[in-house]
Amino acid sequence: MSTKKQISLIAVLIVTIVISGWLSGWVSAYSPDYYHQIKKNIEVFGRVYQEIAEKYVEEVDPEKFMKAGIEGMLSTLDPYTVLVEKEDNAELQIMSSGKYGGLGMRIGLRSGWPTVVEPPFEGTPSLKAGIREGDQIIEVDGESTKGLTVSKVANFLRGQIGSEVFLKIAREGEDESIEFRLIRAEIIVTDVLYSGIIQDGIGYIRLIHFSRNAGKDIEKSIRQLKTEGLKSLILDLRSNPGGLLDAAVSVSENFIEKGKLIVSTEGRARGSTQKFYARKSPVLEDMPLVVLVNGFSASASEIVAGAIQDLDRGLIIGTDTFGKGLVQTVVQISSEAVLKITTAKYLVPSGRSIQDPKRSKRNSLGSLQAENVFSKGEDENKKSDKKSEEEPQEKEYFTANGRKVYASHGIAPDVKVEEETLSRFEIELLRKTLPFQFAVRYATKHPELRRGFEVTDEILAEFESFLNENNFNYTSNAESALQEIEETAQEAEYFALISSSVDEIRSVILQRKEKDFDLNKGFVKEELQQEISAKLWGTKAELEAGFDQDAAVQKALEILSDSVKYESNLAGPGKKPEQ
Fold this sequence. Notes:
Blueprint: H1 3-26, H2 32-55, H3 62-74, E1 82-84, H4 86-97, E2 99-102, E3 107-110, E4 113-116, H5 125-129, E5 136-140, E6 143-144, H6 150-157, E7 164-170, E8 178-183, E9 185-188, E10 192-199, E11 202-207, H7 214-227, E12 232-236, H8 245-252, E13 261-267, E14 274-277, E15 289-293, H9 300-310, E16 315-318, E17 326-334, E18 337-347, H10 376-384, H11 386-390, E19 396-398, E20 404-406, E21 415-416, H12 424-431, H13 434-445, H14 457-469, H15 477-491, H16 495-513, H17 516-519, H18 521-537, H19 539-546, H20 551-560, H21 563-570
Parallel strand pairs: 11-12, 12-15, 15-16, 16-21
Antiparallel strand pairs: 1-18, 2-9, 3-4, 5-6, 5-7, 7-8, 10-11, 13-14, 13-18, 17-18, 19-20
Helix pairs in contact: 1-2, 7-8, 8-9, 13-18, 15-16, 18-19
């Protein structure tokens, strides 16, 4: 068979399979004319692809060309409708199944190398082999990892349960690299990063993802805390990007009365409009509850926070959440790729949407302006909704107690606690992971430290020397502003007139910059306290070392320690808290 016939056959097969699959799922929702338009346009798309592949002046890469076409179509939609290929698909599968074959460690990039950023998980091959936080993975099965992305290295580490993998590790304090032979095991994903009583019967749970096991992990943690004298709970969802809708419902069921609506979804396709109710009695019952959120709490985190707020089940503390109120359905496209399609929006119990309009279109996030692809009726609906999207604060909804809440722009907290704004010095320290790197070295040299140690002036002086050894430097905001003035003056050819003044200003800026370490000592002490604690005693110790300086946690402790204050924050108009 000729190449041309092969391409034609493939095109026909693709069209037939796609059309038959789509039509079977949409038969009750759309008119015959709509089907005809879909079929006709897929044929046109296939013909364009075939003609260019065969006749364009230069040979095109068939795979890249098709991918470009797919990306072009998706660019006209919201930023959450995406083609997920092999590497990211693996992450999606892990979230959906709640388990994977691997070694049981979290990695991140440090100084260009994939590095173990937390103590390995309990009972996993990594922990049993003696791998530590701070270890740099320099080779996997003989292949260098220098410059590779975290997802690429993570895929190298994962694999079939029972298969072997060879690692070469660089470790602080060791002159030579260390080699490990590890056997991959089944790793159960744990979404609870921390669970414990932190003050007078007040429990704290930090949830970092919403994978398949999230609801069970929360339930298990609450039951354990009850045996330790739990009286009230802080659920920390800050910087939790979300995950599965079912997991959000499962987590919510631990707090919300059986039979109450948790979330509903509204969509165009068959089966996309649903209501999700609590199906069991809550394990926390009626104990006081606070949920912590911030601008990186998204999706499933917002479902949980929205349900708890709308039902007046607890207080939300922190800053406005991300504002992602769209539901994605996963469609398998090939063995190595899936398509995530936004098929519905979700509404929290009061009936409000929390989708931030600014996050609904790709072109609003910085991509090229795309042609409107929606049908006339849909376009008119969007135009009629424009005013409400631009002014969502005008649309009022009410919680169970009658408190006012608003649509769009995420979940607004009941008690606002602003997060600390970092200086340029602090941002650059964290970006270059210098506290982490120093803590690895310091913990190796000082295993005698005990929990609750103080970051002394001697430790600070040693860290300052470490920064000098690593040639730590950065451009301050003042330096950036001065540089812009210089460039503008040079372009306008009057720099000579101001050069002496510029030199004087630069001298003042540099003198001020030399004092940045002393001016930011409080921040440096906090970071070193947490990072050194993490290296010596694990993630739980790291979090505990930061509670005293965490404004949102401290506000939650203050409110939960005062029942009148807690109840007054939940009381609606005309209601008084019980004495």
